Amino acid sequence: MEIKRNQKYFTSKGINVILIVGLVICLLGIILLFQLNTRPFGIVILLVGSAVAVYGSGSKSGEADIDNQIHSIVKDIPEQAQIKHEVYERHFLKIINPILLKGFDYSCKDLLCKKGPDHKFRTQAYNAAQLYFTREKLYIYGKHLSLIDDAEGANYEISDVIPYENIDKAEVEATSVKVNGREIKVFYFVLRLKDGKDALRITVEYGADVDKACDDINHVTEKMTAFAIERAADKAAKRAYLREQDAKKAAEANA
Fold it and tell me: What percent of the chain has pLDDT over 90?
């Protein structure tokens, strides 16, 4: 992460003064180029202005810089999830695709939030979680990233393995956060357990794909839980049968 440049992105106010100064100097240099007696001096001024403008434009991160830094980390999470849990494509259920959830985090104590020219709100933290589904369990692996702090406490892993029978439901929870005097709507993906706890609760970039993810997870949970109960009943029946046979053999031996 480009910590210092990112900090400037979130904390700088108004226009980029250094960039504006550089552009003004460049304009002056261009004007001087049109006069024969000042052309050499104009070239020098233009070079100085260009240097100042380049410095000003590179002194802080832009929206593309922020997004690229996030992408460079998030793109590796699916593979890291497989390595972490030692679960691979051959183990995946066919009835549901792996799910990647991600979004800017709005739960930071001292929240910094900025709206870019693309009308997208960005905060100083981001989270992403990969979900894999096998025959018996749901595997979760993800990361919480800080864009302005490289401390270990601000950057950490999210990891869990959950049997389907322990899952209650997956749902989207909408709330709002007040930032700079305005209300911003925030959406959380929540995976609730039957004991009342949340196995996963992260902000997401909300869309139809998130709703579909919840529907798919709930469908798989219901189906695989029923399958687990049926499998447990079969095992119990087999154990009971074996005990009954052992009892008969013991009775015959004592007769």
Answer: 57
What pLDDT, in 10s, does the model give residues 77-136?
A: 999 999 999 999 999 999 999 999 999 999 888 899 998 889 899 999 999 999 999 999
- Alpha helices (H) in the chain, listed in sequence order: 3-11, 17-33, 39-58, 63-74, 77-85, 208-254
Please give the model's pTM, rounded to 2 decimal places: 0.77
SS3 state of residue 133: strand
DSSP assignment string, 62-126: -HHHHHHHHHHHHTTHHHHHHHHHT--GGGS-SSS--EEEEEE----TT--EEE-TTS-EEESEE
Q: What is d(CA 19, CA 4) in angstroms, rounded to the nearest whole number? A: 18
CA–CA separation, 172 and 177 (whole Å) = 16
Which residues have a Cβ under 8 Å from the Cβ of 41 and sit 6 or more positions away?
32
3-state secondary structure at position 171 = strand
Output the pLDDT for position 103.
97
